[in-house]
Design a protein that fits this description.
The protein has 266 residues and is an alpha+beta fold. The protein contains seven helices and eleven strands. Strands 1, 2, 3, 4, 5, 6, 7, 8 and 9 form a nine-stranded mixed beta sheet that branches.
């Protein structure tokens, strides 16, 4: 959908097709499973600056210019994006009339409070989110233990709203969340493709049936890690969803099936 490093016009290329406010730093789309984030130098006058830390985590400051930052509107949408089934797309604002450079898709692993100043110069509490770039570890063999209910409970806990932690823990927490969801989803399928209903085409060297996690809320995989939005599918269905002429409909049908499995209420 977006190419990393390419510069886009915010109004025409982002908000015209996908909606929501073109002035907010955090802009959740009402009609699409996306949350758009815009980072720039405007925050330096308020005592903070977005950017990468030494651990490869992008520190992104929440929205709100006066008073303490709260988990409402955009800040809540960013924190809860995985449970809401929304991807985070981060852009660097280059300045007035210069467009926005796409930095890629991210996941919110955790967050922290820091001290800063607001627009009036008053001290306040600032929310800093810890963003990590998803990595493709979906092909790793499952390391399941415990009953299905235990695996589900662990996956839902891991995939709930991001927690208050140190940025040093962000990458580890992200990998733990991804692993918990992957292990539960593969156990839930029990060797049967959740799209076509056929048995897995072969077994791994450890004897477990080979199925692939598919993130239904992203055109390519690496989307929100939550059991509601991730299905275990056979390689054939996986390829068809991404590349087949009926892929979109197949993906929608899988979303509906997952909703019924997880007791999802819109």
């Amino acid at each position: 959908m977006f190419e990393v490093g390419r510069i886009y016009d915010r109004r025409c290329d982002i908000h015209a097709p996908y909606g929501d406010s073109w002035q907010s730093g955090i802009s959740p789309s009402a009609d699409w499973p996306f949350v758009f984030l815009f980072s720039g130098e405007s925050g330096t006058r308020y005592g903070y600056q977005d950017g990468w830390d030494d651990n490869g985590v992008f520190l992104y400051t929440g929205e709100g210019q006066v008073g303490h930052m709260e988990f409402s509107r955009g800040n809540r949408a960013l924190r809860d994006h995985a449970a809401d089934g929304k991807d985070l797309h981060l852009f660097e604002s280059l300045g007035k009339g210069k467009g926005c450079r796409y930095m890629g898709m991210f996941a919110c692993s955790s967050w922290e409070f820091r001290q800063g100043v607001d627009r009036n110069g008053d001290l306040r509490r600032v929310i800093v989110f810890h963003l990590v770039q998803p990595e493709d570890d979906d092909q790793a063999p499952p390391d399941t233990y415990g009953s299905l209910d235990q695996l589900r409970a662990r996956a839902l806990k891991a995939a709930s709203e991001a927690q208050q932690r140190s940025p040093r823990e962000a990458r580890r927490l992200y990998h733990e969340r991804s692993a918990a969801v992957r292990e539960y989803v593969l156990a839930r399928a029990d060797g049967i493709c959740e799209s076509c209903g056929n048995p897995a085409p072969f077994k791994r060297p450890d004897g477990t049936p080979y199925l692939e996690p598919h993130h239904t809320r992203k055109i390519s995989d690496g989307g929100p890690d939550h059991p509601r939005w991730v299905g275990a599918v056979c390689p054939n269905c996986h390829k068809e969803i991404h590349r087949g002429i009926g892929g979109e409909e197949k993906n929608r049908n899988l979303e509906g099936y997952l909703a019924s499995l997880e007791g999802w209420v819109p």
